[in-house]
Amino acid sequence: MKDNDIKRLLYTHLLCIFSIILSVFIPSLFLENFSILETHLTWLCICSGFVTAVNLVLYLVVKPNTSSKRSSLSHKVTGFLKCCIYFLMSCFSFHVIFVLYGAPLIELALETFLFAVILSTFTTVPCLCLLGPNLKAWLRVFSRNGVTSIWENSLQITTISSFVGAWLGALPIPLDWERPWQKQIAR
Amino acid sequence: MQKASVLLFLAWVCFLFYAGIALFTSGFLLTRLELTNHSSCQEPPGPGSLPWGSQGKPGACWMASRFSRVVLVLIDALRFDFAQPQHSHVPREPPVSLPFLGKLSSLQRILEIQPHHARLYRSQVDPPTTTMQRLKALTTGSLPTFIDAGSNFASHAIVEDNLIKQLTSAGRRVVFMGDDTWKDLFPGAFSKAFFFPSFNVRDLDTVDNGILEHLYPTMDSGEWDVLIAHFLGVDHCGHKHGPHHPEMAKKLSQMDQVIQGLVERLENDTLLVVAGDHGMTTNGDHGGDSELEVSAALFLYSPTAVFPSTPPEEPEVIPQVSLVPTLALLLGLPIPFGNIGEVMAELFSGGEDSQPHSSALAQASALHLNAQQVSRFLHTYSAATQDLQAKELHQLQNLFSKASADYQWLLQSPKGAEATLPTVIAELQQFLRGARAMCIESWARFSLVRMAGGTALLAASCFICLLASQWAISPGFPFCPLLLTPVAWGLVGAIAYAGLLGTIELKLDLVLLGAVAAVSSFLPFLWKAWAGWGSKRPLATLFPIPGPVLLLLLFRLAVFFSDSFVVAEARATPFLLGSFILLLVVQLHWEGQLLPPKLLTMPRLGTSATTNPPRHNGAYALRLGIGLLLCTRLAGLFHRCPEETPVCHSSPWLSPLASMVGGRAKNLWYGACVAALVALLAAVRLWLRRYGNLKSPEPPMLFVRWGLPLMALGTAAYWALASGADEAPPRLRVLVSGASMVLPRAVAGLAASGLALLLWKPVTVLVKAGAGAPRTRTVLTPFSGPPTSQADLDYVVPQIYRHMQEEFRGRLERTKSQGPLTVAAYQLGSVYSAAMVTALTLLAFPLLLLHAERISLVFLLLFLQSFLLLHLLAAGIPVTTPGPFTVPWQAVSAWALMATQTFYSTGHQPVFPAIHWHAAFVGFPEGHGSCTWLPALLVGANTFASHLLFAVGCPLLLLWPFLCESQGLRKRQQPPGNEADARVRPEEEEEPLMEMRLRDAPQHFYAALLQLGLKYLFILGIQILACALAASILRRHLMVWKVFAPKFIFEAVGFIVSSVGLLLGIALVMRVDGAVSSWFRQLFLAQQR
Fold it and tell me: Glycosylation: which residues (chain B)?
């Protein structure tokens, strides 16, 4: 049982990574002038979409929380709507936190918001898929001794790593790299 | 006894740090050796005949004089573009109209009409661009080094050979008027002098008008050979308004008129020199080495033609020190001994009508004299010290011998000289430039041994802090022996070192003495620590900092090693602080202290969750965290840009209100500032009232009630005066200036008296004696006259009964003198922190006054932020009742980080041009006269205000969790169902012990204070260690003098201020503790009586 779970975990993560790689290459087939550095905003949107889609598909296919009861269609719809609201809420609250952390308030608001969206994609979406719109369960998973299954364990690790990675990404900002994107930010 | 030993131990650790800092500084910030040799007329700089044309002429020294008189007009901070001609040859483009452009039109006219008489140069200034260093360079021709930058206030007489000295020894009459810095630099050198005070940068006109009063009469009287006029108006205008203010145009036009007037009065044997000593930044400051600061204007004019060619389109760039040898030779004087400038050869060519060959020869002879002088200087200097690099020196000597031989050969065989002359000139110039470059590089050379020693000492001190902070809370920490042995050994080492030096008759170096004492006291401590404690424990316990905190600390330290990060530190610090805050919140959640356990325990698993229930709900900690982030972000709006980042714009809110133009906005801002002041006051009073200390009848609380509002009133009134002083009608000027002198002094005096009161009677409690005392008060409204109704009877009869009861009880107690007298003392639970908060508020008000008005908002945020942080930290620190008490590392780190963040948000930057010099005038609008320590103190207090406040407030980190205990208890004791029980319970049990828990375990209390002090010193210490390491590793970095050295100096001074503040804060807690003890003793005695 456990080995099986670990195998499935591995495949899901590989798929996620693969989808990110795909999001770099596929759009260049359809879009002109697409590159990560030049049109980074578009890429962020696409990447976020890809990862969300992969997460959803995997959730539907793998169904790690098999114990959940069967429910009616209206239940599912309200659940889905709730998930959407949660996702938006997390985007906005991340945006607020970024601004509190020092992102400019008015300039570059779109960039900041897209950053919030991509971070939400890597943190909130897996939580929503795995735990559903259930804040108490989230709080449980992200506290000591709160993890009950290997899926939750993986969720904990990936989510915390996403936050730490986003945090680390802020560190090289002051370095004086003469990159075009940095010049743009400076302007 | 133990109190004293805690303080002494901390002082000893501070001494170790100071010794390390001093040793490192002495190796890092080397001063140039100042040679006292002098050039003289009789002694030519080198072998060989005296140069061409000087033989047989009277008054000629090394060279025949070309001008008998010089007028030197020094316009302080005359940037090059202020004097640059504005060409209007592009007709379509409208000329850029900035207040400082094109105002010196007489220069342009002269350059166009008399191209062979005048020349404009862009003179390249060596940093530091402070006036005194520039004056030194402009008279000695040398290179004042970095360390001199600090002594701008206390200028001293120049000991090196200089132009003024040469002039006076040649019997020339030097008349000076202007900036009184010259008085200190050249005491008694002038035949006639008119000095005007230079320090008051707000005064644009006194110096200039004073000069103008004397300039033309002196010139017409003819009793002078060299006339120096040093105008300050432009510089002061830059400091006060910046170059973009209309006032600058006025000032420059005035200077233009001065130049015009001088040109009209010049005689044929006189040279006019108009020079700026340095430039200014776009804010009007100077001191650093940005392009705008180091480019100054230099303009030469002679009524006779001296230049062989017309001026080039773009003015030539020359080093500023070139003026020194040029002027010396033009006036027929020896070049000052230590000069490293290169003569401006153009001026020696002899006018437009001279022969090309003879003019080139004249140039070569001037250059050769100059080269001989520089070579002699290098020879003497390298014999005196080992500063100069031997290899380069050797190369230069070879170059010089070759050039000199060529020159001699040229003199002897005039045939074919025309071809070789240019090469000789080029060789001589090459030598002079090489020598100058070598000197510039070598005078920034370091003593690596001292730097390594200082760094090692700093590292060792940090290690001691870490070790002792772990050891201090373990039982049986041997205070006295541990302290006495190292101190004794230190003294022994110092005496031995001094004796050794005495026997071999070397000069005693205080820095080395301190280092020896530090090392010899450090080693026995380490040995004792190892023997007594360390060997029993695994090494892992020595490094107790938790992982995430360690990571954040490492990032903080890594910041010091990159110039980009040091420049961006103002933004990186709030980011790190925010990370700390979120880390604290997340950690609280992770530890399960935020949520009720039923949410966390899985019913399926059935495990019992956390042993101690959460003390707060999750929303509470989250609110604190978000509030803190918001405060940090808001404080970040008061951001001053470092000069390196051109795209960044400093916050306009940092400037004083007086510089604002709009009346309405000014009034609004003034209102906001006063509101911030009132809010600060109200917050402190509210806090004191919440814990009840405000009710105490003790003098400090009376002061808080009445003195603090008075201080706020004084501050507000001073701001009103300062922001509107320029608009005051002339009749009120005297009154306004008087009031702006008295008010800040009154506020500072009030604060000092408040602190004195606090030290005198720090125990702010309200004592109510007698058990029945509260009940006697329950007698209700008095009733007079006979009762008329049943209701009246119902009311009166119990009253009478109660009254009689009281009477009897009172009589009984009086007869039974041994009866138990109970005393109810209130607010004992917050007695320590009440004293701390009062002291911090009293400290904050004078510091607030030293800043610009709108910084008061930052001070309000500072108090709010530290309040929230203390609450957040207290939520995570469990109160262990019997002790030992500890303050966790994250608390101390966050506190230190917040101090740094506040340093930046109060508008400071760790560079010298960013120092708020205005602070020196608060309370002293007329300047200080000759006093130097007071302005230095005021400016220092302004710069390191946040370091001081946070260091003094450091003990609050220990006290706060005990304060918060009352909240937790109150909340828990009022569940809805148990209200009846709570009422039944006697009042005494309900009262939480709070800070009295600390008093119950004094041993642990002192150990915790010591540990807190050591931890704070450790955090500050590793910062200074990182700065020292960065400065020593990157000592050849391009940015070392611009970024790393100033950063190190600011960190070092900040460390000293912080450590003193920390000692004061802990001493205050000790004083309160002593007072509480004596209060208890008195109470005990009273009870026994």
Answer: 268
- For B297-324, the pLDDT digits (tens) are 999 999 988 888 888 888 899 999 999 9
A-proximal residues of B, 557-586, CB under 8 Å: 562, 564-565, 567-568, 571-572, 574-575, 578-579
Per residue in A119-156, pLDDT (tens digit) is 999 999 888 888 888 788 888 888 777 777 888 888 88
Q: How many domains does chain B have?
A: 3
- What is B168-213 written as a DSSP string? HHTT--EEEEEETHHHHHSTT--SEEEEE----TT-SSHHHHHHHH
Q: Could you tell me if residue B218 is inside a domain?
A: yes
Q: How far is CA B305 from the centre of its chain?
A: 50
Question: d(Cα B323, Cα B274) in Å, to the nearest integer?
Answer: 11
Predicted confidence (pLDDT) at residue B858 exceeds the cutoff of 80: yes
* A60–B contact, CB cutoff 8 A: no
Please report which residue ranges of A31-108 form alpha helices under DSSP H.
40-62, 73-100
The Cα of B893 is separated from the nearest Cα of chain A by a number of Å equal to 18
Cα(B1071)–Cα(B1003) distance, integer angstroms:
16
Of residues B156, B146, B153, the one with CA closest to residue B936:
B153
Tell me if B399 is assigned to some domain.
no
Pair B488, B568 in one domain: no
Structure tokens of A123?
Answer: 């943190």
What confidence category does residue B952 fall into, taking pLDDT thresholds of 50, 70 and 90?
A: very high
Collect all residues of chain B within an 8 Å Cβ-Cβ radius of residue A176.
564
Residue type, A91: C
Per-residue pLDDT of B414-460, as tens digits, reads 666 677 888 888 999 999 999 988 887 777 567 788 899 999 999 99
B780: three-class secondary structure by DSSP:
coil
| Cis preceding-peptide flag for B128 (omega within 30 of 0) | yes
Residue with tokens 């004097």: B83
Chain-centre distance for alpha carbon B949 = 14
pLDDT of B646 reads 63
- Report H helices in B331-412: 356-384, 390-412
Distance in Å from the first CA to the final CA of chain A: 55
**Which run of H or of E encompasses B1032?**
helix B1002-1033
Helix (H) or strand (E) holding B619: helix B618-636
Q: Closest to A176 (Cβ–Cβ): which among B564, B578, B633?
A: B564
State which of B518, B541, B564 marks the end of a domain.
B541
Tell me: pLDDT of B251 over 50. Answer: yes
- Please give the ipTM for the structure prediction: 0.89
Q: 10 Å Cβ neighbour count for B433?
A: 13
Contact B160, B36 (CB under 8 A): yes
Specify whether B532 is located in the same domain as B666.
Answer: no
Same domain, B173 and B240: yes
